Amino acid sequence: MATKSYAGVNVEVNDEGYLTDPSQWTPVIAKELAKEENIELTDKHFEVLNFIREEHAKGNVLTIRKVGKSGVVDIKGFYDLFPGGPLKKASKIGGIPKPSSCV
Amino acid sequence: MENNKKEHKLKKIALICAKATLEDVYATLVLANGAVMEGMEAKVFFTFFGLDAITRKRMKRLHTAVVGNPGMRMPGGLPFPTLLGIIPGVEAGVSAMMKNQMEALDIPPVDEFLDMITAGGGEIYACKLAMDMFKLKKEDLSEHVKAVLTVGEFYELAGGEDSQIIFT
User: Fold this and answer.
1) Is A35 among the domain residues?
2) I need a labelling partner for A49 at 20 to 30 A (CA). Which of A61, B101, B128, B155 fits?
3) Chain A residue closest in CA terms to B40
4) Which tens digit of pLDDT belongs to each residue from A1-32?
5) A83 Cβ contact list (under 8 Å, min separation 6)
6) Which of B106, B119, B121 sits opposite A66 (nearest CB)?
């Protein structure tokens, strides 16, 4: 556990840099988190982030397949938006815990 | 420990599947999909009976073995008698049950799984020798199969720093 400052706001993060409290997340913080992953966030990115945050808030386990069936983005598009590990990167930027699914 | 892990992060995985049983094929597909999910390269080589997993006519009809499979259990957890497994329809029924359970865990059918892996940049290959043996043509295979390769060509693809070959 550590405190990190994003866009002038202090948030709690775990050892791997995931926010420990999703309610501390804001779109401004997301932009800063995305920069660390070398991603420039667009509206499309935010649509995906909002979807995964809603699913997480409902207590649903997220999978690549679920995101692909969301109607927000297809799987290929998801990989294009968050290259090199889309579910992990989107979760990190979206301020929710590291995904725990194997699919 | 943490530094050590970072230094040797796997970059590429090459998987070989030679069997057609549900569990062998899914082990391969889960490993391949898991690799692309982690941002790694994944190359999958299907050979011998494993070709069933990428053959259009067969990929939707994979079964698990109910005879000679000591790990098989009844729904309550009791051992599954081998003699029960020889009754027609039992193997199909057990396989259907397994597929339902996988669907509940968001594990897709084989063709959709191949779709997910290739959408993430993974590549699927078929073994030339086994294709010749089973008299299969490229047209008989799923559209997700990138090429039919000799073993030598597959090894060429599997090379590079921090890469591993796994035979499931």
Assistant:
1) yes
2) B101
3) A84
4) 789 999 899 999 999 999 999 999 999 999 99
5) A39, B39
6) B106
